[in-house]
Write a structure and sequence with these properties.
214 residues; mainly alpha
Length: 214
């Protein structure tokens, strides 16, 4: 069995155990301590797949490093932890934008992204009144997240390879995961939110990682 396969299987196992911890938390109101290890471990294992064949570029390393920092920050409660997570993922998305636009430009963005932009505008028009003093950080994050999706779409429009398709699907899943997180954060918790956030997030970064294998 190859190293890449082992890392992928380990990431899936770690992610499923972390999600199981969140299911227990929803049912019993107490999160197993193992979650504090499993959540960052899953991201680390996904990021490790990038190093199997050859070291990735510094921007991609930075993107995953700041995503990991965001993961860790968001494991804790309180506004300071949330802002730390938001800031870390903000930087991660800027790095992803730079990675996606290597060989492409935003001017190549396809027409269908107007649908996504319309969704983003509508979603934040609904969300921002609920964010209180976090309005501007949330809006800034929304802008860079939207830019990340547009950059991935432009890359796929320009290069049209199987790998750019993986990145595009990953970027869209990232936006979906963050939308679910934002609803939970500002509109109130609901059953199934955290497992859905984690599963879609890890699938998103997994697809982005897979687009750079080899």
């Amino acid at each position: 069995m190859s190293t890449l396969t082992l890392l992928c299987l380990a990431a899936v196992a770690s992610g499923l155990l972390a999600i199981a911890c969140e299911v227990v938390n929803e049912r019993r109101g107490q999160r197993p301590a193992a979650f504090l290890l499993l959540k960052p471990l899953t991201t680390v294992l996904i990021a490790a797949t990038l190093f199997v064949d050859a070291p990735p570029g510094p921007l991609l390393i930075a993107a995953f490093a700041f995503a990991l920092a965001g993961d860790i920050a968001l494991m804790f409660e309180g506004q300071a932890a949330f802002l730390a997570g938001l800031g870390s993922f903000f930087i991660a998305h800027l790095a992803f934008v730079a990675v996606f636009l290597d060989g492409a430009t935003l001017s190549a963005t396809p027409w269908w992204t107007l649908i996504f932009v319309a969704y983003a505008v509508g979603f934040f028009a609904w969300l921002l009144p609920k964010t209180g003093e976090l309005k501007w950080p949330t809006l800034a994050y929304g802008v860079v997240l939207t830019g990340m999706v547009l950059a991935s779409a432009a890359a796929h429009e320009t290069l049209a390879t199987p790998t750019t398709k993986l990145s595009l699907i990953g970027a869209l899943l990232f936006a979906f995961s963050d939308s679910v997180l934002a609803v939970r954060q500002f509109n109130g918790p609901y059953r199934g939110a955290q497992p859905l956030i984690l599963s879609s997030y890890w699938l998103a970064i997994g697809l982005i990682a897979a687009s750079h294998w080899g």
